[in-house]
């Protein structure tokens, strides 16, 4: 066996930014649709005549579909390329948003959210793939954080734009009107997006079928970096996701006694904080890979401390400064979750990046799904006691933390044996040709 073959980095540049921006715009709209229920939870409960646990089922089903699709989507991206998968995703999440707007019953609305979740699941992994195909490896952490930042901007649109439109014009016009954005981003996607720069085609994929699927999943999962990435994503992302996706608005209005406009302002603070910390985390990790674990663990610890402080504060309500601090700290959860991809990316060669990213991306959504359900069930069981319901956050964090500490030594040892800067490497015996990835 000869030595490893290191594939030449993509060049980056203006064209790379243009192509990447088209993909990110699709992800931006997907996040608007995904988080639209977060500002409409109370209205949805009234419209479909459901309680807390049934309301949580909307987001639970959406996340269940999203998480379940991650590995299949990763495999599709590796086999079919980014453009085809993104196009299918945009069609599905737009149809889901329209269906949710027009659904006359709880059951049909659930089906629409599932369709939306299926399309949404195809976006982020595709955008990560565009980043690795169009930009040098050293830019990987920053491009991933920037993609997450744009996604949070979509969350900001839900809070600042969709919420007042919903209250002003009503359910059907607000949700059906927002679906137009899906059509708008689909046009440049179909006309202009390309999977990779000319001359930087990925290595030829091995034969398809069940053997290919098993190999991709098995080889990705064997890498300690992939498993560590999943658990970092699992442990860091979900507190903010649960807060923004569904339970933040009811908690702030019903439990903390805030006006809707004030609560919306705090949700906006989470998003703005996320965008600011996303740039900071991306720069820090791009310069010092050793900062990944301290940043991830520090985010988990700080989030736990702030949640404990809010939930333990004497009745009736926590002070505004403490709620604002909690929301600012929740803004670090999204950037910290992106660190998971910075473990999975260098652990896998170019032709497994989609599959590895899909495995990693399952983590936070599995944790979010579990916590969303737990909060809804505990609220129903305790007569809307948010202090008990949100205590489930700590149990999920503890599970993830133990797995991070268990996998960290093996992942870092394996990483030190590879080329610096996360360059995609394949054993020469496995590579059909030294084609740039």
Provide a short characterization of the protein structure.
By secondary structure, this protein is mainly alpha-helical. The protein contains 19 helices and two strands.
List keywords for this structure.
437 residues; mainly alpha; Growth Hormone, Chain: A; disordered C terminus
Indicate the low-confidence ranges by residue numbers.
1-6, 420-437
Radius of gyration based on Cα positions: 21 Å
Which CATH top level class fits?
A: Mainly Alpha
Element order: H for helix, E for strand: EHHHHHHHHHHHHHHHHHHHE
Q: Give the strand order, joined by hyphens, for the main sheet.
A: 1-2
- Please bin the fraction of helical residues: over 70%
Q: What name is given to the CATH topology? A: Growth Hormone, Chain: A
Count of structural domains: 1
Largest sheet: 2 strands, antiparallel
Describe this structure in words.
The protein is globular. 77% of the residues lie in helices and 1% in strands. It is built from 19 helices and two strands. The protein starts with a strand and ends in a 10-residue tail after the last strand. The model is unreliable at 1-6 and 420-437 (pLDDT under 50). It has a single domain, classed as MFS general substrate transporter like domains (Growth Hormone, Chain: A, Up-down Bundle), CATH 1.20.1250. It has 437 residues and is mainly alpha-helical. The chain has a two-stranded antiparallel ribbon with strand order 1-2. It has helices at 14-35, 41-48, 52-80, 82-102, 106-120, 124-134, 140-169, 171-178, 180-192, 209-222, 224-255, 260-287, 292-312, 320-330, 333-337, 339-347, 353-382, 386-390, 392-416, and strands at 4-6, 425-427. Helix 1 packs antiparallel against helix 9 (180-192).
